[in-house]
Amino acid sequence: MRQHNITVVIGILLLAALLIWINTVNLEYTYPDAADSTTAEAAPWWVALLPWQGTQQRSIKVHQGLDLQGGLQVVLEADLPAGQQLEEGAMEAARVIVDNRVNGLGVTEPLVQLQGSSRMIVELPGISDPELAISTLRETGLLEFVDAGRVPVPEGTVIQTSFGGAGQTAPTESITSTGEITGEVTAPPTTIYPTIITGSDLDLVSNAGFNPDRRVVEINFSLKSEGGRKFGEYTGANIGNYLCIVLDKKVLSCPTVNARIDTSGTISLGRDSLEQGQALAIQLKYGALPVPLKVVENRTIGPTLGQDSVQRSIQAGTIGLVIVTLFMLIYYRLPGFMAVLALAVYGLMNFALYKVVPVTLTLPAITGFILSVGIAVDGNILVFERLKEELRAGRSLKMAMELAFNRAWPSIRDSALSTLITCLILFWFGSNFGAGVVKGFAITLALGELIHLFTNITVTRAFLRLLVGIGGEGLKNNSFLLGFSLERKTQTAPGWAAWLFDIVGKRKWYYILSLAFIVPGLIGMIFSQAQFGTPLKLGIDFTSGSLMELQFDQPVQPAQVQQIFANFSYNNLDFKDTAVTTASQLDQETILIRSKFLEGEAKPLIQERLQSELGNFKELRFDSVGPTIGREVGQAAGYAIAAAAIAILLFLVFAFRSVPNALRYGVAAVIAMLHDILVTAGLFAIAGLVLGWEVNALFLTAILTVIGYSVHDTIIVFDRLRENLPRHRNEAYEVVCNRSILETLNRSLATSITTLFVVTAILLFGGATVRQFVAIILVGVISGTYSSIFNAVPILVSWQTGEIGNFFRRLTGRTPTEATAQS
């Protein structure tokens, strides 16, 4: 056994050395066998771990999300006329074209993927001009050369051509009446300009360039053979006529045909910016979209805010880790030191996997990792508390250690599985609704849970076995190094303590205390319903609209911004109800603007007006969610919470299937979970009224995290009850339940304290972006600890003794009958 454990420890040390190497290098794949990296087959991830491969492997580095490095996330949706069906394969073809356009923008590590059957998510890190990028991606890009005859068409005119194109209806030879025929002319005739060639006839398109002689931006092109033939025939026969160059039915220019053109030509864009010319060149290179697209969600964050968030997150995480480390060393002494070593391996494994998988790190993802540190320590606490019990029972140190791991394993396993259930639901939500921050949080938290199972059972166990092998049984009597004494305390507890710790006997008082926690929140929800129309103040993720955070170079009052929006309108839509408040970012005051959905040119127009009247500003972030997305996210949030409750109920029924009335365990856990949801949501409703806090996608993430933590803590108590029931068959059910609560009280509080350490550090020192999110988790952890101790098991007792049945009989007006308690 000892030789085997030494081998395991050496393996752990070698693994740690490999993890350190992965975490300290950044490798880039050079694709030596292909000129274009986009066509080369990526090497397997493990190839990148081979030191002798040099630089010829794929990238292994930390991938930062948009909220850390700044950038743009936009959701595009097929924009079809009413009654028109989306053709099969049209969105995939559009995705390929958009992907090519993104590559043409020169963005590093972009993301273009389909979402459902009619949407597409595009993420562009570090983009400098979000509005131009969106225009480049979503515009159809249908280029036409049309015959204007002897009359030129002014630039910027929208015309109708003989070519239908994406989203257009081609002209027909038949006429359909749309009104009564009177013989009188009621509207001028519509001119349909003949299309000579389209963008599909172009062969090669150059990048846009500035012609210093003509002082205009130009794009050179060459024609395919058939396109050259058609263009040559037209230009040769129409010298002196006007030829309009049209993009998406809008005239770019209308030059005169001076000579026959067979093979190549030039598109003149006047004096437009070079960036706009390059955007057009990208569209022409990769072709027109097969389906028109519209923006239904748009999120932009500036790089400065992202860098500040990274620094604050690192600071908060460091402080939290230091506090947890000190707690483990002071409270658990030598075993705590072994846990800290295992925690170091845990951190190395997490960051290595983030690079190898790879995992895109967002601010909530980093928060998820920091929270998982507290959960990882929880497993060690369960083992160490069990070790104390086994040693006090008179067992040898070696046997006590093995029993501690074996008997703590069911609680560790079931708690981890309950958290993984909520992570799976969060991952589904983030994947289906473009909530990358939710998805990132779910991935890091789930990875943390899986890795902590390995480090707790393998790494901590191997280190403790090594410690016992070196120190021998003599360590058993060293209370200082073990952090506790083997002597049992026999003094009589004071009367108030006896009353307080008769948790099951005084369960009705604790039920009343729970109501005292819940009722103020319910009152807050009622006031919120009256003021906002919903029990919680909803953000734009659920209601649709736009949220803009600006930092002006000079002091600006919210009333000034409010007045500008009140005088602004776009497409017959006024913005008089725009809400403007102040916030704090980067240690400076900012202006937070919440308005109706800013679509099309509305955003650049209002920002131009803000700049002209209030001076220069920096856009820190911009979120815009269309009404369709808002409705769907709201429905999905309800489904996610319901799915979590049902999944956890079924899981607990399965986990405790060996216990009589296993369904009661699941129901009791769900009731305790609903208690935590009501407490948390109620306080958030009050915060919405007082502080203006709004529900967003991260709120759902926090609620599901609270659900996972609530069940995590409840399982610890239930597991001890499952163990005690066959051991104490001769004791009353209430006595066994109370015993189980008290025996796990120390570990329940210790696990909660370590989690509270890291959550409080993030709340106090982390970025403002996740402050509300972390505040919800903080309240949820406290409420979850309370409900797991004072609600979950007492509910089982109330059910067993018939109190719950009698309560419902009273509600229905029937005479209650006394239920006999079963031992």
What does this structure look like?
The protein has 823 residues and is of the alpha+beta class. It has six domains: 27-60, no CATH class; 71-137, 2-Layer Sandwich (Alpha-Beta Plaits), CATH 3.30.70.3400; 140-166 and 191-288, 2-Layer Sandwich (Gyrase A, domain 2), CATH 3.30.1360.200; 307-482, Multidrug efflux transporter AcrB transmembrane domain (Multidrug efflux transporter AcrB transmembrane fold), CATH 1.20.1640; 510-535 and 629-811, Multidrug efflux transporter AcrB transmembrane fold; 546-622, Alpha-Beta Plaits, CATH 3.30.70. 55% of the residues lie in helices and 15% in strands. The strands form seven sheets. Strands 5-6-4-17-24-19-23-22 form an eight-stranded antiparallel beta sheet. It has a four-stranded antiparallel beta sheet with strand order 10-7-14-15, covered by helices on one side. Strands 11, 12, 13 and 16 form a four-stranded antiparallel beta sheet that branches. Helix 15 (558-566) crosses helix 16 (602-614) and helix 19 (697-727) runs antiparallel to helix 20 (733-765). It starts with a helix and ends in a 12-residue tail after the last helix.
Structural features:
disordered C terminus; single chain; 4-stranded antiparallel beta sheet; 55% helix; alpha+beta; Alpha-Beta Plaits; 823 residues; 24 strands; 8-stranded antiparallel beta sheet
